[in-house]
Fold HTH LytTR-type domain-containing protein.
Amino acid sequence: MKVTFEMSDAYDEALVQIYANAMTDQIREIIQICSEETQGTLFGFKKEQLIPIQKEEMVRFFSLEKKTYCETESETLLIKEVLYKLEERFTHMIRISNSEMINPDFIKDLELSLAGTIKVNLKNGEQTYTSRRYMKEFKRRLGI
């Protein structure tokens, strides 16, 4: 791998460009390190594509089979961060279970269940449930 670095007062901010013939684990790691600096944008993987996800597009984060995903209104992308780090980074999201966080801006409505949980219907048509463990914080964050 060739690395070139140029420093000048002419640049307002750092820019990283990667030229490669294929996506490798080393390139993914470099991209992940660089994206940690950018608090507003998260990058997700879809096949061999790396796609930026804007904060306003995030519907929910969830873990499934030891992998973390970000669901937007149009697609679901693989994320290389664990939920607890995403929770620290995106404080507008609300944790509703050990394996899921949701964006309150995408809540369509709530339904109370007999089991003591709340069914959350999202604007994109998805449905999920709060666990009893996270219920108190969920209600507090929503003001109910």
Remarks:
- The chain is about 20% helix and 35% strand.
- The two ends are 54 Å apart (CA to CA).
- The mean pLDDT is 87.
